[in-house]
Design a protein that fits this description.
By secondary structure, the chain is an alpha+beta fold. It has three domains: 3-62, Helix Hairpins (Orthogonal Bundle); 84-319, D-amino Acid Aminotransferase, Chain A, domain 1, CATH 3.30.470; 324-409, Nucleic acid-binding proteins (OB fold (Dihydrolipoamide Acetyltransferase, E2P), Beta Barrel). The chain is 31% helix and 24% strand. It has 13 helices and 20 strands. The strands form five sheets. Strands 14, 15, 16, 17, 18, 19 and 20 form a seven-stranded antiparallel sheet that branches. A five-stranded mixed sheet has the order 2-13-10-3-9. Strands 5-4-7-8 form a four-stranded antiparallel sheet. The radius of gyration is 28 Å and the shape is globular. Bound molecules: zinc ion (ZN). The site of zinc ion has 8 residues, from loops. Residues 5-452 form the NAD-dependent DNA ligase N-terminal domain. Its cofactor is Mg(2+). Its EC number is 6.5.1.2. InterPro entries: DNA_ligase, DNA_ligase_AS, DNA_ligase_CS, DNAligase_adenylation, DNAligase_N, NA-bd_OB-fold, NAD_DNA_ligase_OB, RuvA_2-like. It catalyses: NAD(+) + (deoxyribonucleotide)n-3'-hydroxyl + 5'-phospho-(deoxyribonucleotide)m = (deoxyribonucleotide)n+m + AMP + beta-nicotinamide D-nucleotide.
């Protein structure tokens, strides 16, 4: 082959490889065995090595490779990447609708409902159709340049299919969520075990850890996925999209995978049905979703509503009530009850479980703490089913920090300093000092008094009645 023929061959190979990729990663259809794509890619790689001048940034070979970085460069977002407000039940969702309806003078004309991906937000910048920069959300104002790593995500087009849209877009910013499918997450943790490395607590942590690898080869091995959730500069190009639903159709035309489960709901009743349906059906999905993002569908209305603080008014995350979540044990304290019984209590990093924030969980008694081996610093699975009190189900021992100690009940009462005894045959430790109960009461007087918490109506008389 002469130089001209080689160039043509390279271009044909790229087109073919990209078509296979598009079918597989965007449309979820395998049109040829993996080995066919591999051998085409191998031929392309060899030709590009021979003629480095023909390498383009959107060549499939550019998805993997490049030298490992020393650090990530900081990038300021053109417009801040805001966060989302959460609601946890129908009533809170209705409050949100009432708030925005007051601003609009009427209810919005329908909502677009999306499965909320449990991943991390990324901004993709395309110039003249070419992916030039990918940035993490960071603190919302400034993120990190992770372009090299994002290129390894095969469902992200390196080159937009602009020819099908009739637009020439100089600048297009696409925002979306990078996430890790459940099966990739399991494989990564198996790999971590094989390499005697710490396990990832959940797919989101694993996705975040994978996107922040200085060596993009590691990122490539993690098989991340991407779904867009929005587009900037819509008005600048006078695109013929007037609502959220059309944004997705447009992004799909440009070559992005979109979530086919997302749908338009004309009122909150339909939104609630969508939420209920996926709350049950989400277990069968190949990825994690932790709620429904409800967006005012009409883009002009979105613009009118704007944002308040750090969140847009026109969208809200309607979370699924998780019955089991993970959190960290910050401390284990011992409470003395009114009968002198000592109870160990886990002080937790506050976490939302089953729709309420939990920062403490009883550990019942010393035997229970030993059986579960709960230690300060541990990451634990916390469960709260319905109205049942929150419970530490188990410790994720692979996430345990170094130098932790087994918890033992104190020898002295934390209230009076008296001797602690454990009556034979019982699991409960007690303060041996009979006067201790008086002191517990006294500490409660103080707790309720004006000099401390100033709890109205909780005077000494009421405290006495509590005993
Ligand atoms: Zn005591």
């Amino acid at each position: 082959m002469d130089k001209k023929q080689t160039k043509q061959r390279i271009e044909k190979l790229r087109k073919e490889i990209d078509k296979i990729r598009y079918y597989y990663h965007v449309l979820d259809k395998q049109i040829v065995p993996d080995s066919v794509k591999d051998s085409l890619q191998h031929e392309l790689y060899k030709l590009e090595k021979e003629y480095p001048g023909f390498v383009t940034p959107d060549s499939p070979t550019q998805r993997i490779g490049g030298k490992p970085l020393d650090k990530f460069n900081k990038v300021k977002h053109e417009t801040p990447m805001l966060s989302m407000e959460d609601v946890f039940n129908n009533a809170e969702l209705a409050d949100w609708e009432a708030r925005i309806s007051r601003i609009l003078g009427k209810k919005p004309d329908g909502y677009f409902c999306e499965q909320k991906m449990d991943g991390l937000a990324i901004s993709l910048l395309y110039k003249n159709g070419l992916l030039v920069q990918a940035t993490t959300r960071g603190d919302g104002v400034t993120g990190e340049d992770v372009t090299q790593n994002v290129k390894t995500i095969e469902s992200i087009p390196l080159n937009l299919a602009l020819q099908d849209t009739g637009y020439t877009l100089q600048d297009l910013e696409v925002r979306g969520e990078v996430f890790l499918p459940k099966n990739s997450f399991e494989k990564i943790n198996q790999q971590q075990i094989a390499n005697s490395q710490q396990l990832f607590a959940n797919p989101r942590n694993a996705a975040a850890g994978s996107i922040r690898q200085l060596d993009s080869k590691i990122t490539a091995s993690r098989h991340l996925d991407f779904l867009p959730y929005g587009m900037k500069n819509v008005t600048r190009y006078k695109l013929y999209v007037t609502n959220q639903e059309q944004i997705y159709k447009f992004l799909n035309k440009l070559g992005f995978k979109i979530n086919k489960h997302n749908k338009f709901c004309k009122n909150l009743e339909e939104v609630n049905k969508f939420h209920q349906y996926w709350n049950r059906a989400r277990k069968k999905l190949p990825y994690l979703t932790d709620g429904v993002v409800v967006k005012v569908n009409d883009l002009a209305t979105q613009e009118r509503l704007g944002f308040i603080g750090k969140a847009y008014r026109w969208e809200i995350a309607y979370k699924f009530a998780a019955e089991q979540v993970t959190t960290v044990v910050k401390d284990i304290i011992v409470q003395v009850g009114r009968t002198g019984a000592l109870t160990p209590v886990a002080v937790l990093e506050p976490v939302n479980v089953s729709g309420s924030t939990v920062s403490r969980a009883t550990l019942h008694n010393e035997d229970e703490v030993h059986r579960k081996d709960v230690r300060i610093g541990d990451t634990v699975i916390l469960q709260k089913a319905g109205d049942v009190i929150p419970e530490v189900v188990k410790v994720l021992k692979n996430l345990r920090p170094k130098n932790t100690h087994q918890f033992n009940m104190p020898k002295k009462c934390p209230i009076c300093g008296g001797r602690v005894i454990r009556p034979e045959g019982g699991a409960i430790h007690r303060c041996a000092d009979p006067k201790c109960v008086v002191r517990v009461k006294r500490s409660l007087y103080h707790f309720a008094s004006k000099s401390a918490f100033d709890i109205e109506g909780l005077g000494p008389k009421i405290v006495d009645q509590l005993f």
